[in-house]
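[SOLVED] Need 3D model of a three-part complex

Original post:
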Amino acid sequence: MTPALTVRGLTVDYRGAAVLDDVDLDVAAGEVLVVLGGSGSGKSTVLRAVLGLVPAPGRVRAARLALAGGRGPIDLADPRARRRARGDRIGLVFQDPVLALTPLRRVGSLVREAGADRSGVEPLLAASGFGRPAAVVDRRAFTLSGGMAQRVGFVLAVAGGPDVLLADEPTTALDGPARVELVDRLRERAAAGTAVVLVTHDVGVAAALADRVLVLDGGRVVESGPTARVLGAPAHPTTRALVRDVPWALPPRRRAPAKGPAVVRVRGLTKAHPGAGAVLDGLDLDVAEGEVVGVAGRSGDGKTTLLRCLLGLERPDAGELRLGGVDPAAEGWAAVRRVVQLVPQDPRGSLNPWRTAAQQVADPLDFHRIGDRAARRVRAMELLDAFGLGGLAGRRPTELSTGQCQRVAIARALAVRPRVLLADEPASALDVTRQAELIELLTAVVAEHGTSALVVSHDLHVLERLCDRVAVLAEGRIVEDLPVGRLRADAAHERTRALLAAHPTDPLAAATA
Amino acid sequence: MRLLDSARAGAGTRLRERLRDRARPPGRALVVAGSVLLALVVLVVLVAPWIAPFDPAAQRVGPRLAPPEGEHWSGTDRFGRDTASRVLHGGRQTLLVTAATMAAVVAVGVVVGTVIGLAGPRGDDLGRRVVDTVVAFPAVIVILAFVGLRGPSLPAVLGGALLVWWAPFARLTRALVRAALAEPSAVTARALGASRLHLLRTEVRPRLVGPVGVLVAVETGQLIATVAGLSFLGMGAQPPDPEWGAMLADARGAALSSPHLVLGPGLAVLVTVLALTCVGEGLRDLLDRSTQVVRP
Amino acid sequence: MLRPAAVVGARALAGTLAVLLVASVLVFGLVRSAPGDPVDVQLGEAGGVGLSRSDIDRIRTERRVELGLDRPLPEQYVRWLGRMVTGDWGTSYVSGRSVRAEVLDRVPASLVLAVSGFAVAVVLAVGLALLASRRPGGPTDQVVRLATLATVAVPSFLLGTLALQVATAATGYRIAGPATAGRIWLPALVLGVAVTPTLSRVLRASLIAERGRLYAVAAQARGASAGRTLLRHVLRPALAPALTLGGLAFASLVTGSVITEAVFSWPGVGRYAVDAISAQDYPVVQAYVVLATALVVLVNRGVDLVQRLVDPRGDARAEAVA
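Solution:
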């Protein structure tokens, strides 16, 4: 069988620094090839090089870059031929669907520009999952939600009927069910005879979709072969790390559910955003002393709003809060923050870039006037030592690795010895190895300091490893609330089941069986 | 949600960085050139009494309205005073008065902008509208209105300038304050219990200094040019002060027949504004670059 | 989020009226705070020769009643606003003619100059920005940048004076006479050149920024040519920030480019106002201030509307650029 896309000896460098080094790959019509790699592996550059879209100082060399198919062969090394092939013979699905759409253009006009004729627009949109495509055609791209933009982006990639479909980390920005939907779409295209190249760091997606897997590390191909072989019995250390650190492979949390008094008590929490309607609609939630509770939900279901209300960053329209035994309405948010601290989403972004690790760890003590200056400094040094950052007290975030930033952020949250930790998607900005570290770290902290925690995340796998109990947020309320051990067996609500379906116990099982 | 943001920032910044890389203009060179030029102007103005060839107020040191040549290398005015000497001496008042006005408008603008930036949504909305409206008014119009009702004088021009010139600073400050407070690090600090004062000190100030500095440089140049222009029309400084604007006012009637009278103080204004503009533009380049480096 | 056009229009109108009203209060305050009683100023103008002290007091009281200066401030304001809105702007102390007639005589000249100057600026700025943004940091970009930098620094009176010198020597350009087509090109050019740098700089920056965005790359990935990417994808979002600035520039041109008008003896509103200020011709100054204020507000509101049509995403981004 002749491959639809052939790449031989692809090398890309920026001012001498190699990003890709002698990469070969083939995809046949109807086949799905997954290029797997961590950040900085050069996996996205492969796709850009094929399309001739490597930005300015980048230099691309290849022994062979060619397209074959029913409409004749095309040499992709020839810029003019390559430009004609874009969109028409090769489609590209972007990582960030919202940013990849020209904001001011209308959907219909974009789809026509991408190669569909007037009558073909609505069927294409319908096939991509829009129930009422006519309603979308005249909307401008910037008014679309993330999920809608994702579907439109897919339509644009396939509108020209390409022989080869490239996808650049298309699932990274999606929550579980949306990821499942996209994987189905890609599988449909492959079944229809399109060659698919999917670039991702997500081993789960690779397992669900790939016929063959190619693993990149530092710009080189370190391993390639059939999915079952590469993921089931990885030979290279890079692949082994990718497979080993996935959250579902980590040991599950085993602990008897705590039965102490509630340290977090939320009753009837209601919040509407102008133009968006009710985001939270009479939400009730409890966290017991020493308990770790996860709140799961899809994007846009109000997880972030819930957390912002609990942090006093947004004022709820109605409802009662009691956090760490403090009523913010009566005693003020300062008193709440004295006992409730935040583990942020993006560890590096959450730290002030101009201040040292020691200063930042001591900050909460300063905010709440705990101890004198010397005592605060001592406490900060103790915490940094405890987190293995003893020698880094004088460093600023730019001089720390992401993992170190993460530990500084957690040490800072513990400085005031809080009764409750609130964690906001603590693992989602991290690669799998960093995720595994974080899960281990948070578990240890909670056990050691006896704090309670509320963890908000869309990643059920992470919550299963971290929490005693998982509550599912949908349509502004908690629709399911189960101890983690009973979640998979006893989930009754359809939203919970959809989340569970998107996070199977072992996503690799099907592929490696 | 956050994942989306950071992934987006990753891809976007890398690409933008590369574009910037190529777009990187000679920021440092501009700053250095501008600063040297500015220092030179200030120095010359300071030592004017020792280097000026003639007494700036002495009449008939040469023929009247002589074109630039010989001893009076930039000519003489209608009282036979030496133009070069008058330009050298005139800088002192111009620079001092401009600096004082600028200090006032920057202080007012930054304070107003900070107050609006810290206000709740309603206060912010109202404040933003007011500031935007003031920004929208051409400074020259407002100054003319003020001068029209007070009578032409340098204080009237500067008073008019005070009425409007704070607004761009307030607008920039407000935007920067709000952007800084929306940064994840500021939001986190707030959630941990940081006071407003702490946030202003640690999160807002470092993000404010650079852009405001750029604006100060650029706007100081514009203020000098505007005041000089209005003086040229006779609205500002009045003769016989040896002040650039006043000299221009003096020269206006004879601008066509004796262009050197405009050229002398005009070039002085040009050089000063050029120096300030270079500093401002160069700083902007450097700043663009440094904001790229803050997050690797 | 998207409201029907009628609602948007009504809101815009109400907003404009509100701003005009607030501005009118400010102008009234400014006018009333001027040193010296308007009656005294007028009496001074009339000479007041040969009148006894009591005569002057009597006349003053009569005039004050006549002018309504004895009424409470709010009432004075309403009457003043009525007169300003209906065009009853009084008579010039200097010429004795109706201020309205004199101003209206001069508006066309200013308008023509402003529009042609702005046209020059737009053509130059768009051209330069497109040229410079093709290869950011390339030789063209650097040259354009240095040229605009130098132009920003040239004060407009100097630019005008020099241009006039050169044109007089080279083409026998004459500044005397009425506002004619044969004469307008030079001031229009000077105005245009003076406004170009700020416009082109912002446009260049936003073109480069928009071109670097993912959607522009995506358009190319779908086969759009460089030209199509620019015209159909990048240009419109890139225009928004430049529009705001263009609006500000146009507003200042329309209200009379005082310096250029003075240099070129252009018989426009700006020069008229400057002459009136020198002569302390109080009614003229007041009329000018009122007219300029109204014009600025209207032009800015118009630009706001245009901008909302061009980029309906709102003004968040334009703010960030400024």
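Edit: Chain A has two domains: 3-244, 263-346+419-512.
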